[in-house]
Every structure is written in C-alpha cells, then in structure tokens.
Design brief:
Order of helices and strands: HEEEEEEEEEE
CATH topology: Immunoglobulin-like
Strand order of the largest sheet: 1-4-10-9-6-7
Distance between the termini: 65 Å
CATH architecture: Sandwich
Number of helices: 1
CATH class: Mainly Beta
Radius of gyration: 18 Å
Mean pLDDT: 87
C-alpha cells in the first residue's frame, strides 16, 4: 500500500514539474535600458537559461542600431526569436554557450515579444513555460 501511495505522490509531483506548474509564482521582471555607445550602437547582453531570459525586459531607442550579445547556460538547447519584421526585427537564432551577436535597427515604436520556441515532444514549449521577454522600442 505504501508503494502505491508513494507512486501516486511521485506521479503528481512529476506532472506538476513537466506541465510548468510551479511553486515560485509570477516571473520577475528584470529590466535593462540600453545606452547608446560612442559609436552609435545600443548594446545589450542577454543570458538564456532554464526557462528564462535575463534581462527579460529591454528598452531601446527607435532608429538606433541594436547589438544583442546572447548566450545560454550549459544544458538544454534554446533559441531566440523576435518576429516583428514591420519594426525592423526578424530574428530566429539557435543559442550556444559561446556568445552570439545579433544586430538589427528597430524602426517602429512599440513593445515586441522575444522568446524561445524550443519544445520537447508533447510538452509545453519553452515560451509556454515562461521563457519570453519584451523589447520596448521607445522614442
């Protein structure tokens, strides 16, 4: 009987973990406001990890080149996707533990999502598990 109860508890715990239901609550907003360097480029470093991007809220200026240097923690494969071609941002890159530089110039003010679109079999995508952020293009 104890084995059955233990099995049920283990099954329920694994179900919560695999479906992304956790005990931590809402995702913390980690903001970075890009500064225009002397060469006229806004630079931002982004770390991708276990279902997070840091920072996950990035503020940049419109019509000023942006250079994202993105890398991931060792382990799970991740990507970076920004789908806003009408605003000058159309990115889909696989990430590595080695930094990857991504360049674009945002051409339209607004808030645009970035996310990881990886997914394992029938489980939730990384984005569904909270691996997303926002690029806020401002004046």
């Amino acid at each position: 009987m104890r084995t059955i109860v233990f099995g049920i508890i283990l099954f329920l715990a694994m179900s919560l973990i695999l479906t992304g239901v956790g005990f931590a609550g809402e995702k913390e907003k980690k903001t970075h406001t890009a500064v225009v360097d002397k060469d006229g480029v806004q630079r931002v470093n982004i770390l991708a990890g276990s279902y997070f991007f840091e920072p996950n809220y990035i503020i940049v200026r419109v019509n000023v080149p942006v250079e994202l240097t993105v890398k991931k923690e060792p382990g799970t494969p991740h990507s970076l996707v920004i789908k806003a071609p009408d605003a000058g941002m159309d990115v889909k890159e696989s990430l590595s533990t080695e930094p990857k530089v991504i360049r674009f110039t945002p051409t339209k003010i607004g808030k645009y999502p970035f996310y990881c679109d990886n997914r394992l079999l029938f489980f939730k995508s990384h984005r569904d598990r909270g691996m997303e952020g926002t690029i806020d293009v401002a004046e």
